[in-house]
Design brief:
single chain, disordered N terminus, Trna Endonuclease, Chain: A, domain 1, alpha+beta, 5 helices, six-stranded mixed sheet
């Protein structure tokens, strides 16, 4: 949307409205690009999960121009991504924080329970966290996340815990966030 301002001299200045629609999408964009690369290179099949919604009201001006006017979330979603790598099920959550800590309120109890179930059934579960001010990315295995929650009463995980118990992912050109070598190192130690 463009806003027009008229000054007393008659000169018009066009100003664009600032939108914040895609804040926090950097990690998701990088992961989507990475997963597309993995799929194209036949390394893994990993997708972003759709959020389950119930549509209540739709306007149908024409078949090609249907617009959802009202909808609500059916159930809380589990985690952001899932798929298969080297015959193993993978499931993970992606989060961003502007702080030098990861607030635990950023991950919901049902997501933690879901990751616990994934690892209890032999799958690979983890979180990827972007510390946006530092431009640092970490993969924290679900086992280490659960250990932290069991051993601590803190309301956040300090960066130092990620440095000691997680694995840093360096941002690169292609793929953007190459996390599969970390999965290989953790879960396929002798098979790489």
């Amino acid at each position: 949307m463009v806003m027009s301002m008229k000054y007393p001299s008659g000169v018009k200045e066009q100003k664009k409205n600032i939108t914040f629609d895609h804040r926090g999408m950097s990690l998701e964009s990088d992961l989507n690009e990475t997963n597309q690369y993995y799929l194209k290179e036949e390394k893994a099949v990993i997708y972003k999960k759709p959020t389950p919604i119930t549509i209540v009201k739709v306007d149908y001006p024409s078949r090609l121009e249907a617009v959802i006017r009202e909808a609500y979330f059916k159930t809380p979603s589990t985690t952001d991504y899932n798929g298969v790598y080297r015959g193993k099920y993978i499931d993970f959550e992606a989060k961003e924080t502007k702080l030098n800590i990861f607030p635990l309120k950023n991950i919901h109890p049902h997501q933690i329970k879901h990751l616990e179930k994934v690892i209890n059934h032999g799958g690979i579960g983890f979180i990827i966290v972007r510390f946006s001010k530092l431009e640092r990315y970490f993969l924290l295995p679900a086992e280490n996340l659960l250990a932290f929650l069991k051993e601590n009463t803190r309301k956040s995980i300090p960066l130092s815990y990620f440095e000691r118990n997680g694995f840093e992912i360096k941002l690169q050109y292609r793929p953007r966030l190459d996390y599969l070598p970390i999965i290989d190192r953790i879960y396929f130690k002798g098979d790489v």
